[in-house]
Amino acid sequence: MSFLVTIISFIIVFGILVTVHEYGHMFFAKRAGIMCPEFAIGMGPKIFSFRKNETLYTIRLLPVGGYVRMAGDGLEEPPVQPGMHVKIKLNDKDEITHIILDDQHKFQQIEAIEVKQCDFKEDLFIEGVTAYDQERHRYHIANKAYFVENGSLIQIAPRNRQFTHKKPYQKFLTLFAGPLFNFLLTLVLFIGLAYYQGTPTNIVDEVAKDTPAAQAGLQSGDKIVKIDHHSIDSKSDIDNAVSQIKNNNTQIKVERDGKTETLQVKPKKVEQKLTKTHSETKYLLGYTATTEHTLFKPIVSGVERSLEAGKLIFTAILSMIASIFTGQFSFDMLNGPVGIYHTVDSVVKTGIINLISWTALLSVNLGLMNLLPIPALDGGRILFVIYEAIFRKPLNKKAETTIIAIGAVFVLIVMVLVTWNDIQRYFL
To answer: What CDD domains does the entry give (predicted)?
Structure first.
């Protein structure tokens, strides 16, 4: 039963993160007029699909990612290549309306052609030798034309609907939208948790044993109004004051039973390990605060927790990158699908609230990792767009495709190594 709960939780968490990320790309792509032939969650063989307008929505077997196929993004290969024999249907202007790649159709008055040249990105044409007269002909592709494959119609994107022919700011927004939507998901989850749990106040709820708070004499119901020279109105004020005082002796003023009491306290220094090479220092009093349910404070709390999560993950990523140059890098710093599954298995046992909090952290992590300047990731492709905006011309298409391909191979190799490392770490 526990195994089943972990599997379901993993699929839900992974599915939400990938869906939100890819939907961000598609949301801005469609608003820029870019055609999106497919929106996929997962990789590998299709297990479910449906079509809405020009987009095929698919769920694929392997829960290891997802993608939005955008016309003219340089990552897709057209199904027709020189040397192929295909059938075409023409309109009354001798323009191609259908390129037929299967026998599951009922079209009449079609022509067989051996393709010699074709272009589906710039001039949009097919040139080849037709069967009926053995002559070479050049046919332009109509503004509304389709590939007919496996019984389905896949629209061929006209030039003005392709990613490559959009303005730099439209390309930038489309690429940045994936990480942006991950950041927004983090914000939504933290705000939702704050509304559900309430926001912490400056009133003490419980004091843990053998902690600075217990040694100072803090009691349940105490209202903390001042720490050293810092006036206190909220839990965040307490955290800020303690972080500045560090582990030095200081005074805390509390309101107790209508009177003001002054207590002496020395916060405890705690090293929280973020990665193998990076730790974060925190100073704790050792108590829990009461919570309250208000209309606007959860929004502020959600924003603060999102910023803290972003800072935490960003620092960890910088530490990981620095470790590559210092020779301290280890694949243990990275988690693939197997590592994420193992973490889900641990977190889900602690309750749904912790699982949601961890999902929020994972979402901001996915967003920031995708902004790394690696060609196959969003960050690398954004660099190409910035180059185009600065120099007023796109990078050479062959060079861009080659760089992206190299980046994709690099990411794939890293994923394989990380996955194997996770398997050894957790299961062998």
So the answer is: cpPDZ_EcRseP-like, S2P-M50_PDZ_RseP-like
Q: Which amino acid is at 268?
A: K
Chain centroid to CA 406: 21
Report the pLDDT value the prediction gives residue 274, as an integer from 0 to 100.
55
Phi-psi region of 265 (alpha: psi -120 to 50; beta: other; left: phi over 0): beta
Beta bridge partners of 140: 125
Pull the structure tokens for residue 203. Answer: 């009133």
Beta strand segments in 70-214, E = 85-90, 96-100, 110-119, 125-130, 136-149, 152-156, 199-207
Distance CA 38, CA 41 (A): 10
β-bridge pairing 136-149 and 96-100: parallel
**What count of Cα atoms within 13 Å lies in the side-chain half-sphere of residue 14?**
26
The pair of structure tokens assigned to 287 is 């108590």
pLDDT of residue 1: 57
**CB contact set of 314 (below 8 Å; sequence gap of 6+):** 368
The pLDDT tens digits of the residues spanning 214-240 come to 999 999 999 999 999 899 998 889 989
Q: Are 103 and 114 in contact (CB under 8 A)?
A: no
Biggest alpha carbon distance in the chain?
Answer: 103
Q: Element (H or E) spanning 400, and its range?
A: helix 397-427
> CB within 8 A of 271, min separation 6: which ones?
279, 280, 281, 282
| Of 198, 217, 203, nearest in space to 290 by CA | 203
- Of all residues in the chain, the percent with pLDDT exceeding 90 is 51
Q: Which residue is listed with tokens 């929020």?
A: 360
In the block, tokens 């090479």 appear at 277
d(CA 82, CA 5): 50
Q: What is the pLDDT of residue 409?
A: 84
Positions of CATH 2.30.42.10 in the chain = 200-292
**Residues known to be catalytic:** 22
Q: State the pLDDT at residue 279.
A: 67
385 is written with which tokens?
């767009």
What local confidence, expressed as pLDDT, does residue 126 receive?
Answer: 94
Q: The domain 200-292: what is its CATH number?
A: 2.30.42.10
Tokens of 380: 């690398």
Please identify every stretch of the chain with a pLDDT value under 50, giving residue numbers as ranges: none
